[in-house]
Amino acid sequence: MSYLVREIFASLQGEGVQSGRVAVFLRFAECNLWSGREADRATARCRFCDTDFVGGERFADAETLADAVAAAWPVADSENRLAVVTGGEPGLQLDEALIAALHRRGFAIAVETNGTLPLPPGLDWICVSPKAGNRLVVVRGDELKLVFPQDGADPAEFESLAFAHFLLQPMDGAEREANTAAALDYCLSHPRWRLGLQLHKSLGLR
Ligand SMILES: C[S@@+](CC[C@H](N)C(=O)[O-])C[C@H]1O[C@@H](n2cnc3c(N)ncnc32)[C@H](O)[C@@H]1O
Ligand SMILES: Nc1nc2[nH]cc(C(=O)O)c2c(=O)[nH]1
Ligand code: SF4
Ligand SMILES: [Mg+2]
């Protein structure tokens, strides 16, 4: 299978429980909840996206793509390699062949997903970020990272799911400050939830 990739870059994981860890980001093009065009945002199934995932480069097969990810690892040795597979929605393209090819190159593989599409087996870390009004099919994993607040996605709805960590990530945009205060308040009164801030944005990283 071939893959349409928006970008590949090294940075720190800026989100979630693994925040601060060095990673290569593999950002796939395309999402099942938004076209990525501003003209469609108001009618999309997910309307607050902070990411440009339109277009990119086509990789012919898993080996070629895994080579490009490995080439982006910032140091010569392969200690503690992590690939964060994101998008767009990685559930559209990520498959077992790519997982195997990345594992062969020494990467642990984390995925950032909206949880509405089934994932292939073999992932090392699954982060699901639910989008209000869109049914989850990925109902277990390592972290559930809810962008907060969202009308129609009360944190309490997700607490019975089989995740090891529950995080609120303030919705970025015009209301970021107010959303951060609201998320902090929620966590202070609901200790199961941990506040997750987008480290890369405050550091000016990608
Ligand atoms: C761009 S998405 C790509 C992965 C996948 N489609 C998803 O939604 O999880 C990466 C992460 O950014 C989060 N995100 C998107 N827009 C955001 C915003 N405006 N503020 C805070 N987090 C946001 C998503 O919820 C997700 O956890
Ligand atoms: N540094 C950095 N960390 C991230 N964690 C999740 C990201 C994403 O867009 O999925 C992201 C991102 O875009 N940059
Ligand atoms: S599901 Fe993820 S990639 Fe798709 S529009 Fe929403 S935040 Fe962006
Ligand atoms: Mg991002």
From TrEMBL:
Q: Which residues bind Mg(2+)?
A: T51
Output the GO biological process annotations, alphabetical, semicolon-separated.
tRNA queuosine(34) biosynthetic process
Names of the cofactor(s): [4Fe-4S] cluster; Mg(2+); S-adenosyl-L-methionine
Keywords, ordered alphabetically: 4Fe-4S, Iron, Iron-sulfur, Lyase, Magnesium, Metal-binding, Queuosine biosynthesis, S-adenosyl-L-methionine
* Enzyme class name: lyase
> What residues bind [4Fe-4S] cluster, as annotated?
C31, C46, C49
What catalytic activity does the UniProt entry give for this protein? 6-carboxy-5,6,7,8-tetrahydropterin + H(+) = 7-carboxy-7-carbaguanine + NH4(+)
| Pathway info | Purine metabolism; 7-cyano-7-deazaguanine biosynthesis
CDD domains xrefs = Radical_SAM (cd01335)
- The residues that the entry says bind substrate are L12, Q13, G14, R27, T86
4Fe-4S keyword on record: yes
EC number(s) for this protein?
A: 4.3.99.3
**Note accompanying the cofactor annotation:** Binds 1 [4Fe-4S] cluster. The cluster is coordinated with 3 cysteines and an exchangeable S-adenosyl-L-methionine. Binds 1 S-adenosyl-L-methionine per subunit.
- Ranges for domain Radical SAM core: 18-206
Residues annotated to bind S-adenosyl-L-methionine:
F48, C49, D50, G88, S129, P130, K131, Q169, P170, M171, D172
InterPro entries reported for this sequence: 7-CO-7-deazaguanine_synth-like, Aldolase_TIM, QueE_Cx14CxxC, rSAM, rSAM_sf
Q: Which GO terms describe its molecular function?
A: 4 iron, 4 sulfur cluster binding; carbon-nitrogen lyase activity; magnesium ion binding; S-adenosyl-L-methionine binding
Reported function: Catalyzes the complex heterocyclic radical-mediated conversion of 6-carboxy-5,6,7,8-tetrahydropterin (CPH4) to 7-carboxy-7-deazaguanine (CDG), a step common to the biosynthetic pathways of all 7-deazapurine-containing compounds.
- Assembly: Homodimer.
**Family note:** Belongs to the radical SAM superfamily. 7-carboxy-7-deazaguanine synthase family.
Protein name, please?
Answer: 7-carboxy-7-deazaguanine synthase
Organism annotation: Magnetospirillum fulvum
Gene of this entry: queE
